[in-house]
């Protein structure tokens, strides 16, 4: 069966999702939405960075694309600074009877226990009204801290604690808005960026903890957050920005699921702009990794290293995009509603072996 797909946005993740859609034999690209007039009219092959045209041109006309009645929209538009607008976009797609796989807003990957019921209900109602499904995922939050730890847990006799970590150097991550505006790198240490405002960490990554708890049948007493920032010890250059000594250049945050007074589930990010910073913090395998640790019997530690042309940051972007595209057939065939990782069957890179 062939599934008709629209790619919604062509930024970092969107361009790689576009490449994945074009590469998959079971998917037919029928449209591309872009936010800028400069990209409108360009062929999808050019926007995907390919050396060939594919015969589908981008447009800013959302109504025309929805009128095509695709089976699925791969939605990768930036939502960190426009959360409510992004939710309204998703609801619009669903009411139109179009299934959606999306990289954001990330709290929708498992909103239960993180968002109030009255915030979840309108999304579910839109899906049921249109008879369509929504699945939000990626790599983190996503398969690095849902399917990876859950698969590993199946080989346990006893589980005392699960820790999922992203340990990365972000100096090559090509998203200045995220790195500087949202995460606050390069700012004064007493200036809290958007990410570190009260409750934001548990809103974004508390969903990871809640999903693991549900899948492992753990009733949590609370979900807590903690963060620590360290300054640059010398001048750093990140893209076209200069990070001054004394400004934020390393960030470690943790979200804990607490039961019986102890941390049983932990989501951790250890982010540096230079590998020499914070040597006492956890160190990655290779240049950057996603790490899953299960304390129990037996103890497990899984380090997932990832590279694309030697760049771990680009590899993470590709892993986010490809994960969404891989799930399109399963999401189209799923029941209407808001789906989570545990609702889907195993999805693979079918058709991609060269």
UniProtKB/TrEMBL annotation:
Keywords: Oxidoreductase. Its EC number is 1.17.1.8. GO terms for molecular function: 4-hydroxy-tetrahydrodipicolinate reductase. Pfam families: DAP_DH_C. It is an enzyme of class 1 (oxidoreductase). Gene3D superfamilies: NAD(P)-binding Rossmann-like Domain. It comes from the Bacteria. SUPFAM superfamilies: NAD(P)-binding Rossmann-fold domains (SSF51735). Residues 146-348 form the 2,4-diaminopentanoate dehydrogenase C-terminal domain. This is 4-hydroxy-tetrahydrodipicolinate reductase. It comes from Nocardia goodfellowii.
